[in-house]
Amino acid sequence: MRFNARHALVVAALVLLGGCAQHSMMQTGQQEPEPIPIKFVVVTMFEIGDDEGDQPGEFQLWKERQELDTRYPFPQGHHDIYVNEETGVLSIVTGIGTAYSSSAVMALGMDPRFDLSNAYWLIAGIAGIDPEDASLGSAAWAEYVVDGDLAHHIDAREIPDDWETGYFPRDAKKPYDPNKPDPSFEVQQLNPELTDWAYELTKDTELPNPEALEETRSLYTEHPNARKAPFVLKGDHLAAMTFWHGEIMNDWANRWVDYWTDGEGQFVTSAMEDSGSYLSLKLLDEAGLADSDRVMVLRTGSNYTMPPPGVGAAENLVAESEGYAGLDAALESAYRVGETVLDEITTNWDVYRERLPTPGDID
User: I need a labelling partner for 182 at 20 to 30 A (CA). Which of 297, 310, 326, 354 fits?
Assistant: First the structure.
């Protein structure tokens, strides 16, 4: 990833702000409290109602099962922070969309109450999933996070006859221009060894497979992977603020990810936040406040990114908007798979505090 002068100014501002806060405490004679050492951060994006005891969103299972009982007010973010101070596990709810997620992660990274210098970060949420690759409830570990917003766009009714789409990269002259511009944050690669380790550790996890999923899966008569029971896979992530849907947009997503990753990435999941969250972590890394090599992205399929044969995109999107067919299964899958990684790291903290796990660590 290329860091330009603007990124350098952001990093300098982070360091300056931290120093100002410290200087202010010294002037007032306040005793600076010791920051709480955090081993593992779970980044979720939304909650549906209460944090406990009702229909869960992405946060609730983590709060209940990890006993995240200590609340820290977080007025600069979307939702208060919860911590298990005995295990060193912290979780946030960023809010939906790149603007919310990037600002929440940055605010957490700047928070002097927590020492995040050795923390592992798991971005764990639901997503649309490509029926060409996986089924509802499946869990995909991403190595690449590709942004789907930073681009030029011309309405398809006004594009040249030889263009397939009106969506094309900034500083390019046409869609999928072979003279590809240098990426700003259009594509970000996570630590591949950590991603491989997480996949190898969790690939045999038993995922929930309620009968209710079969009704939706069975409609995808031309997509063998969409008809499978939920499974764990490696697959890359497209983050875009627009909730898109349909076969044509799904084809675009596959080509967009392929284009920005030079053919190395495979589009599997779609959501809104992860390019912003990861960019904030990269900048926090530059400021010495986080380690971006310790970041993992796990997305689980709550709905398909395109309709089954014979169903229109608009019709299917409206139906999905009334309730994702795989929501509950996706939430449970995210917890089961993510918790396996969390438990392995925190249980073996004497090892993984200083060095990162690799696939060779798995028996």
Answer: 297
